[in-house]
Specification:
Blueprint lengths: L3 E2 L12 E4 L13 H12 L3 E6 L5 H10 L4 H4 L2 E3 H9 L8 E4 L23 E4 L10 H8 L6 E4 L5 E4 L2 E4 L1 H11 L3 E3 L5 H5 L8 E5 L2 H11 L2 E5 L5 H4 L7 H7 L6 E3 L5
Helix pairs in contact: 5-6
Length: 272
């Protein structure tokens, strides 16, 4: 596996048919788009290179598309979004885990089950737990969630965002993956939708395409690429930026090895 830093995606784009590009931390920070990443999308589009904005957002793809349009992203680019929430929704519609569910997450994620709200129930009466994140009114106290869940570990949890944390601007926020990790520690079973798990990729890739996955999260973006045997470009200036500050290039691989992952290329921020 070739490991090197690149100055821009223009150096390697010709090797690949499709690009799976993470959103949060690569294309935007929750508050604004990154101009360098938008230039990448413009150039890929100009060169007729296919790309998917592949997100672990626990909401349907159309919701994230609206969010990106509000950030002033071009509609042509925003329409390429595919989310972990969308992947989960397609399974939920088939009642794979049962009908009645307990929603563990904020109200802003309610669109995930629009059309079958009647199946939302209490923990005591549910067939499974639908985890999209933290409640809006409970803060980020992990003890609250441990106490809430420990008596219900017989239920399957469906986690629609395997990410542990994200940066919103300069602030860190817990994601659904943190609650799923707690649930597993308690002895519960979790079905994950999103990177690094295979299902989400199967919705996005065509047969015999050569893929480059681009992301800033080793646990999800890069681990997922490794699992699928895709080449990857790791963005060091994202969620793991504190681990790479003033770090010699020769030590980059050592950081990824901590997470039992490896990458083909490094770049601080996604640029053309």
């Amino acid at each position: 596996m070739t490991k090197r830093t690149i100055k821009g995606l223009s150096e390697i784009y010709h090797k690949y048919d499709v690009f799976l590009i993470d959103l949060w931390g690569v294309v935007h920070n929750g508050k604004q788009l990154y101009s360098g990443a938008i230039e990448v999308l413009e150039n890929l589009n100009r060169l007729n290179k296919r790309f998917v904005l592949l997100s672990n957002a626990p909401r349907p793809s159309k919701n994230v598309e609206k969010f990106l349009l509000n950030l002033k992203m071009d509609k042509i680019f925003a329409k390429t979004v595919f989310t972990s929430g969308e992947a989960a929704l397609r399974s939920l519609e088939k009642n794979i885990y049962g009908e009645k569910f307990y929603h563990l997450g904020p109200k802003r994620d309610n669109d995930l089950f629009r059309g079958f709200e009647k199946n939302k129930s209490s923990l005591e009466e549910s067939d499974f737990i639908l985890c999209t994140g933290f409640f809006e009114d409970k803060g980020d106290s992990l003890d609250y969630y441990k106490n809430l869940l420990k008596k219900h570990i017989q239920l399957k949890m469906v986690c629609t965002n395997p990410d542990l944390i994200v940066h919103r601007g300069s602030c860190k926020e817990y994601c659904a993956g943190t609650l799923a990790a707690i649930y597993e520690e308690l002895g519960g079973k979790v079905a994950f939708f999103g990177k690094p798990y295979p299902a989400i990729y199967n919705f996005c890739i065509k047969k015999n395409e050569t893929v480059l996955a681009i992301g800033d999260n080793v646990r999800t973006d890069i681990k997922g690429a490794n699992n699928m045997k895709f080449d990857s470009l790791f963005i060091t200036g994202g969620i793991h930026k504190d681990e790479f500050i003033d770090l010699p290039l020769d030590d980059y691989d050592r950081i990824l090895e901590k997470y039992k992952s490896k990458t083909n290329y490094y770049q601080e921020n996604l640029t053309w």
